[in-house]
């Protein structure tokens, strides 16, 4: 069963209370957490060397707790964790899927951050632990509680960073970039119940054998080609036409035949295509990963000759209609094909892509002009 991410996002956003303020939400959590941290730290006095060992011990304990709660309550439906399961697997993993992990406005933090009241509940437990441990050793009590609270705040911050756009400066920081990739893999439907449950540091995933890593296709030797064209029609109609893959053979010189569903394809859709690109025949198996009407459409494919590619369509409204940008990123797993691409194929594929933009403009303006998009036969 395919999942329409955009439809779910629209429903979820419509259900957010009009008075919800994302900045107040995040600000309260950080401010309250910082206040509690200051309280615990203020009770430290002349900490001895052995007492500092409480910090790594508490971090291991926090990593175990994060892993266990995430796996056993967030991804397993139980009576005790029913609300958490609905909010996490039901909402968060439907709102964010692999290939579409970024939030689009501050109000989307509602589905990323824990409820604001949870840090109050969490701090009650920490203050209880601090009080009990302080009967034995005040420094141990303060270090233990402060470390667990810092872990909670780190989880909130890291989780928000892991849903930033890939080109954001914070996303390019080495550790954030690494954890962001692990978290995206966790959001794959085939991995979310079994792998990558740690979000700050994957200690427990490593110890328990649930750590899963795959490099981004873009991190391999990828060729990137980008072309754009001005189309005298509105963005929603243009993207709907371009994302109707059964019509690709009409305007793209490399597309020979497409076996798929008619109409613009939503995220989660799959289709097959026969191509002749760069002088070589081949076959591609496609998966649509993103569709924001009038804005963006993205799909990935694997094909013959060890080919992997990512195709992105982006639309921007202009005075004359739509600025349509097509970005193709592709690479080959074999050395021979990489060499052939560098010597011959890249130039041919670039020319074919440029030609496709001319044909798309011509065909889209001709087809869309005949009738409004809701009446257009996109078969």
TrEMBL record:
Database matches in SUPFAM superfamilies: Bet v1-like (SSF55961)
InterPro entries xref list: Polyketide_cyclase/dehydratase (IPR019587), START-like_dom_sf (IPR023393)
Gene3D superfamilies the record matches: 3.30.530.20
Keywords assigned by UniProt, alphabetized: Membrane, Transmembrane, Transmembrane helix
Origin: domain of life: Bacteria
Residue stretches spanning the membrane: 20-43, 49-69, 111-132
Pfam families noted in UniProt: Polyketide_cyc2
Identification of the protein by name: SRPBCC family protein
Source organism of the structure: Metapseudomonas lalkuanensis
